[in-house]
Design brief:
The protein is α+β, with helices and mostly antiparallel strands. The protein is built from eleven helices and 16 strands.
């Protein structure tokens, strides 16, 4: 089993994947193989003769070059084998499903499954039984893919042109009605009859990659089509071990949250890319110093990606930083691809940590002069009114007799 999740060389991102496989009649291309063999034979016969320079001769030579060498397996079998490899590459626990479109459009009977030895075995058995027939109802397959729960990415594999529905308009409507993150759509074209323009545009409009006959033909740019940033990196160029730094502890500071750390990270560009730039980060922020880069943010995923631009000494490369809750800690996970080294970001994490710590510290209350109140005294019994001596004499007969005797 390979270490990286991929399909036709395109990385399979986390979040669940649906494989949309064209099983139209043209995918069983044995007739196409025979035609290719005949064309190559004719090209060999006229090579070096005057017929090679004629208009028809040049067309035969050109067609022979495009058909390549004799194919031993059909397009259907090739697609089936690639899908089995992709399933074997899935990490255990990854959600996946299979949707076929041809004579009928439907999801395989098991529905969304989590990758496991049993799930992969079941999928291989299902793929062994599919056959090619009918047209190319791509629109129906895409609609079914959008309706599938627990799926973040669609892969569309086809050899022809859609026979039903307006695909691009339908997908735009489906994306607009979708809640949460947009669906990523990668496209794979096989053979000479594929609709390259549609497959490329479908990928560009939906943050995906278009692979034409095994080679990357179109890649999505989140900002501008001609900005020169590279968004596609083969799995072999992806850094194998991400860097994870704990920024603060929610157990020690209740206000330590992923949102707080993410907002702090975007408050100044220096917390996202090497340099002293204090510009507030926004989506598609272009920085030219010290080296040209573009920062792309995804607020839904609490992540930001720095892409190099032409002129950067380490072009092409990208670094993605994602804020996550990991047990009691809020961490920043830094992953990369291409030429940018992860080691450059250790100092950035330290500065981010200090900035977050400054926000979490509760300032001491200001000391102000206050009047000191004396401690409370115990309650004294109420003072009795002073008695008049004459009243006492009047009431006490002894006192009255004493007064008369003195007189």
């Amino acid at each position: 089993m390979v270490s990286a999740q991929e399909y036709y060389g395109v990385p399979i991102e986390d979040g669940g994947v649906a494989f949309l496989l064209d099983v139209s009649g043209s995918m069983d291309n044995r007739g196409e193989q025979i035609t290719g063999s005949i064309v190559r034979g004719l090209a060999a016969l006229i090579q070096g003769t005057s017929a090679e320079r004629s208009k028809i001769g040049r067309a035969i030579i050109d067609r022979a070059a495009r058909t390549g060498t004799a194919t031993q397996i059909s397009k259907m079998e090739s697609a089936r084998r690639e899908l089995v490899r992709a399933l074997d590459s899935l990490r255990d626990g990854t959600n996946f499903t299979i949707i076929t479109f041809g004579e009928y459009t439907h999801e395989w009977p098991a529905g969304v499954r989590t990758a496991s030895p049993a799930g992969r075995s079941l999928a291989r058995q299902y793929l062994a039984g599919i056959y090619a027939a009918g047209g190319t109802p791509m629109a129906e397959a895409l609609q079914l893919g959008f309706q599938t729960p627990d799926v973040r990415t669609l892969f569309v594999v086809t050899d022809g042109r859609p026979t039903t529905g307006e695909v691009l308009r339908l997908v735009q409507s489906l994306q607009e009605s979708r809640t949460g993150r947009r669906m990523v759509i990668n496209t794979v074209g096989i053979g000479s009859d594929q609709d390259g323009g549609l497959l490329c545009q479908l990928a560009l409009d939906n943050e995906g990659i278009y692979v034409r006959d095994g080679k990357v033909a179109c890649t999505f740019s989140p900002c501008s089509a001609d900005d020169g940033i590279v968004t596609f990196y083969p799995p072999s160029s992806v850094k194998k071990h991400p860097s994870v730094t704990s920024i603060c502890s929610s157990a020690k500071h209740p206000d330590c949250t992923p949102k707080l750390v993410y907002e702090t990270m975007l408050s100044e560009a220096r917390f996202q890319t090497p340099g002293r730039n204090r510009t507030k980060v926004r989506n598609c922020l272009d920085l030219d110093r010290p080296d040209p880069v573009t920062i792309v943010i995804n607020e839904d995923g609490l992540e930001a990606t720095t892409y190099t631009r032409p002129g950067h000494p380490l072009h092409a490369g990208k670094i993605t930083r994602i804020v996550k809750q990991q047990n009691d800690d809020v961490v920043v996970e830094t992953t990369g691809a291409g030429n940018l080294p992860l080691a450059d970001f250790e100092g950035i994490d330290q500065e981010l940590m200090e900035a977050v710590r400054g926000k979490l510290q509760t300032p001491e209350p200001a000391q102000t002069a206050q009047t000191v109140q004396p401690p409370p005294q115990p309650a004294q019994p109420a003072a009795q009114p002073e008695k008049n001596t004459f009243d006492i004499w009047k009431k006490d007969p002894a006192m009255t007799k004493k007064k008369k005797h003195e007189q």
